[in-house]
Write a structure and sequence with these properties.
Length: 109
């Protein structure tokens, strides 16, 4: 519920700043390891938007796969949560993508 509230607050603030009348879509970037349960988020969002300018807004998202870069050889690749060593050189992997949870864009009129 708190995540849905944060998303709605961001969208409403942005809509007010831009003098919008209605929010049509809120698109999110959700990393594979963000911990967001999309069904629960959608349910909470639907409850929270009642009576707001986002009441009919679609909540959409893109799942960002887990990816990382090797500290030693610099190669980037998709990762599994257990991948800590580079399969090419054995260096340590740094996670670069997959934990995101952010509003990507808001469509409004």
């Amino acid at each position: 519920m708190a995540i849905a509230e944060g998303i709605l607050d961001i969208a409403l603030d942005y809509a007010h700043e831009n003098k919008a009348q209605r929010i049509d879509r809120i698109h999110l970037l959700l990393g594979e390891l963000s911990g967001v349960e999309t069904e629960a988020l959608t349910l909470a969002f639907r409850v929270l938007v009642r009576g707001t300018m986002a009441e009919t807004a679609a909540l959409t998202w893109e799942c960002i796969p887990l990816a990382g870069r090797c500290h030693d050889c610099g190669r980037e690749r998709r990762l599994r949560p257990a991948d800590v060593l580079c399969p090419v050189c054995g260096g340590g992997m740094e996670m670069t993508h997959g934990r995101e949870m952010r509003v990507d864009y808001i469509e409004m009129e």
